[in-house]
Design goal:
The complex is a heterodimer of chains A (305) and B (356). With 305 residues, chain A is mainly alpha-helical. Chain A has 15 helices and no strands. In chain A, helix 4 crosses helix 14, helix 5 runs antiparallel to helix 11 and helix 11 packs across helix 15. Chain B starts with a strand and ends in a 10-residue tail after the last strand. Chain B has two domains: 229 residues, Rossmann fold (3-Layer(aba) Sandwich); 110 residues, Beta Barrel (OB fold (Dihydrolipoamide Acetyltransferase, E2P)). In chain B, strands 6-7-8-3-9-10 form a six-stranded mixed sheet, with helices on both faces. Chain B is built from eight helices and 20 strands. The chains are: A mainly alpha (305), B alpha+beta (356). The interface between A and B is medium-sized, with 17 and 21 residues. The complex binds adenosine-5'-diphosphate (ADP) and magnesium ion.
């Protein structure tokens, strides 16, 4: 070991560039302000209409009818929500929100679970089995992505009516279940399951059904949860198909019912009840997201391995 | 307790032939190591034995029963994978018990077997953990445990130690050997590591591009390699190869510079002047001046503690490696070829030439 050439210099006080330090701090502060400003603006833009709806649902019909846009809560909260919940509202007699919420819940859960079941099975087949026409099957599924519900809605309607499934739960749910998106997502996930698990299971003597049940499904839990959230909201927000296939008002879903509440022409709308119903319609998706947030984020960002 | 025979096993993936006819007899309780460079078909062969891959032709016979067309689960085998393939969502117990559960074994019998295996492997306290909570060495043990509880006729190992750090690898190597002796289960072990192969195997199969270059006990492979491939693959640092030709009634080798090296064990078959390849292990180059010694120009010195590896060049420009006892420094190293340790190979075929 050589001694340092100049031990005195090593021990000397380090020089501080105060001007540069201050400039750095100023720049950091400025960029923080900018970032926060942009974020707060974004939140306001998204949140303001929701706030207006919330406030609107606490006034009486007259206030909004006059064209006022109240920004502070009014005094009619309980009666507005009670009306919406028990009787419904709007010019044309509508279904109570409680019934519509249950209907929407049935539809959204059935669609989400149905889509998950179908897409897990089809992705499982496409990934873990080699059969003639495997790629053909995959591409056939993939191509249906190009056909949104609206494009195939007339033939689908014809088929469902011919099957006498109009105004029934199966008629409402089944056409919305076939899902290329979820199949693709599960396929991508299944492809990350190492071949060695498949082989270890073969040596353990697990057949395809056992392997699906004991290994693939447990490993997919976070993905299933994440997808459930997305598909639940997708199902909840369905509008066009339920509007067409359901005309029994006791089966009306809340998204459709809400739009029917808003009358056309110059008749006055009961905006207070409508807004209360809108707030009620918001709650289940918000609840699902909030409750499953932990799973949801994990499922989208990490894989269990 | 079982024997394994492979009869002319061939495998092609589409147009590429990966295995060119493998014949192998593994005796009861024997541990045979398949060793070879990456991509030579070791795993493919093992997977054919396991039933994870179907041979293009040939037979796999376990204990006298032709299992070629059977599912892996019906072959009475257990396999340890390179990445262990432990199911991440099951506990250690669950992983070890899974195969038994599928077989419909009674709960208490499963618990008894898992406990016994955990005892042997020293993983008793880990049974409730998930694989994620284990170290590499512990996972390795669990993977072994999963194989042991099955009480199979045949253990198959596909590079099970290559994900461990060097120290643990040496330790687990010894442990696998002890365990295999103790349980007496016939085993096939695949590795690309020649040290692992030498230390573990009762016999080795040295594979070269889908063909078994030599099947023999480790010391025989080391002292009498069947061809230049085996000679160069086994032994570290690798054997030096020197081109030469037969001379003096085939009793000596003539080097390109005219030096004659007499064979210690007698003349080789062939006509005079036949080109041959001489093989000499680095530890068999003796330092020292004198008649017939080659002065090496030293290019690189690798001190290993008790010995030193010296990379040098002959005056003719050929790279030569020598392994010396103790330390060494210097720019020139004269070495002598010890005729007693000379290996002679046919220059064309690479096959070993023994005295006629
Ligand atoms: N499923 C497969 N399809 C096509 N080629 C394969 C397949 N499996 C292995 N191979 C090829 O066979 C050769 C031997 O592979 P492998 O047995 O894994 O070698 P090793 O285990 O000795 O490294 C390699 O060239 C590899 O690319
Ligand atoms: Mg391999």
């Amino acid at each position: 070991m050589d001694a340092p050439a100049n031990p005195v210099a090593l021990r000397a006080e380090p020089v501080r560039d105060d001007a540069l330090l201050r400039a750095t701090r100023r720049r950091a502060l400025l960029s923080r302000l900018l970032a926060h400003g942009a974020l707060i603006l974004g939140v306001l833009i998204v949140a303001f209409p929701i706030y207006m709806t919330l406030v609107g649902s606490t006034h009486d019909a007259g206030t909004i009818g006059r064209g006022d846009v109240p920004l502070v809560p009014g005094a009619h909260t309980v009666e507005n929500y009670a009306t919406a919940w028990n009787e419904g509202g709007g010019r044309s007699q509508t279904t109570p929100a409680s019934t519509m919420l249950v209907n929407s819940l049935i539809m959204a859960v059935a669609i989400a679970l149905g889509k998950i079941a179908i897409s897990i099975l089809s992705a499982y087949a496409v990934v873990f089995f080699s059969f003639p026409g495997r790629m053909l099957a995959f591409w056939a599924i993939f191509i249906t992505l190009m056909l949104p519900v609206e494009v195939r809605i007339i033939p689908t309607f014809q088929v469902i009516v011919d099957l006498n499934l109009g105004n029934t739960w199966p008629g409402l749910v089944i056409p919305l279940i076939a899902s290329a998106t979820a199949t693709l997502l599960f396929r991508q996930f299944f492809l990350t399951i190492p071949d060695e698990f498949v082989e270890a299971a073969k040596i353990d003597g697990a057949g395809p059904v056992r392997f699906l049940r004991d290994v693939v499904l447990p490993l997919s839990l976070t993905n299933i949860a994440a997808l459930f959230v997305i598909l639940f909201i997708y199902g909840w927000n369905q509008y066009l198909w339920p509007l067409l296939i359901i005309n029994d008002r006791s089966m009306e879903t809340i998204v459709v019912g809400l739009s029917k509440m808003i009358g056309r022409g110059d008749a006055q709308n009961e905006w207070n009840t409508i807004m209360a119903t809108a707030v009620l319609a918001l709650l289940p998706p918000v609840l699902v997201v909030a409750l499953m947030q932990r799973w949801f984020v994990r499922g989208l960002t990490e894989t269990e391995k | 307790m079982a024997t394994l025979s492979l009869r002319d096993v061939k495998k092609s993936f589409n147009a590429t032939q990966v295995l060119h006819g493998i014949d192998l007899e593994v005796n009861d309780g024997e541990l045979v190591v398949i060793v070879g460079a990456s991509g030579c078909g070791k795993s493919t062969l093992l997977r054919i034995v396991a039933g994870l891959e179907t041979p293009t032709s040939g037979q796999v016979v376990i204990n006298g029963r032709d299992v070629t067309g059977l599912e892996p689960a019906d072959r009475d085998i257990a396999m340890v994978f390179q990445n262990y393939a432990l199911y991440p969502h099951m506990t250690v117990f669950g992983n070890m018990a899974y195969g038994l559960k599928i077989r419909g074994m009674a709960r208490d019998e499963i618990a008894r077997r898992v406990q016994a295996a955990a005892e042997i492997l020293g993983i008793g306290p880990l049974l409730d953990r998930k694989p994620k909570q284990l170290s590499g060495g512990q996972r390795q043990r669990v993977a072994m445990g999963r194989a042991i509880v099955r009480e199979p006729a045949l253990f198959l190992f596909d590079e099970p130690l290559s994900n461990l750090d060097a120290k643990l690898r040496v330790q687990m190597r010894a442990e696998i050997r002890r365990l295999q002796r103790r349980l007496g289960v016939t085993s096939l072990f695949v590795t690309h590591d020649q040290v692992e192969a030498m230390t573990l195997g009762d016999r080795l199969v040295v594979m070269n591009a889908g063909r078994p270059a030599q099947v023999a006990p480790p010391m025989e492979i080391f002292s009498r390699p069947a061809d230049t491939y085996v000679a160069g693959f086994i032994g570290s640092p690798a054997m030096n190869f020197i081109p030469a030709s037969l001379d003096q009634g085939n009793g000596s080798a003539r080097l390109p510079d005219g030096t004659l090296i007499p064979f210690a064990d007698g003349p080789r078959p062939g006509t005079a002047g036949t080109p041959i390849t001489l093989g000499l292990r680095p530890e068999h180059l003796e330092p020292g001046d004198g008649p017939g010694s080659i002065p090496l120009a030293v290019e690189l010195i690798e001190p290993l503690g008790s010995e030193t590896v010296v990379h040098g060049r002959t005056p003719a420009g050929m790279a030569v490696t020598a392994r010396l006892n103790g330390a060494f420094s210097g720019e020139r190293l004269p070495v002598r070829i010890a005729p007693a340790h000379l290996h002679v190979f046919d220059a064309d075929t690479g096959r070993r030439l023994d005295p006629a």
